[in-house]
Design a protein that fits this description.
alpha+beta, six-stranded antiparallel beta sheet, about 30% helix, flat
Length: about 140
């Protein structure tokens, strides 16, 4: 019996090593896309613990991110450096364009079809969030 306990303890201690996990989210993450001819509205919010809600103009859907998704999101948020990035100003006037935003912990970066795009690090976060929205979008019915 003592041999099994020793083996289990060794496995437990050994399992604690390896790569360090990403630091947890320090605040809420948000994503939004709106506009276009049809007046599209897409929103996603993710809480610190991985609970998420997608919403359209008329529906909502809640889900929970997997550990892998939460780790990828935490990494993308850290790399995006939202608090150190300015929003883009529109360069031209136009109709039926889209507006985009990503936010983290109270900071937000916005841009549109009529402005320059934000840095690639912010676009990488946007693309990850856009994929989550698409995978968990509320039904259209």
């Amino acid at each position: 019996m003592a041999v099994w306990r020793a083996a289990l303890c060794a496995l437990a201690i050994g399992g604690c090593g390896g790569t360090a996990s990403a630091a947890p989210l320090q605040g809420q993450v948000s994503y939004a896309k709106s506009g276009g001819i049809a007046g599209l509205v897409q929103k996603l919010t993710v809480t610190r613990d991985g609970h998420a809600t997608t919403s359209s103009a008329v529906r909502k859907r809640s889900f929970r991110l997997s550990k892998v998704q939460l780790k990828a999101l935490t990494s993308a948020v850290t790399k995006a450096r939202i608090s150190r990035t300015s929003s883009e100003k529109d360069n031209v006037q136009g109709a039926d364009g889209f507006s985009f935003s990503v936010g983290y912990n109270g900071d937000k970066v916005t841009w549109s079809d009529f402005s320059d795009k934000p840095p690639q690090r912010v676009l990488a976060l946007y693309e990850l969030l856009d994929g989550l929205y698409t995978s968990h979008a509320p039904s259209q019915r």
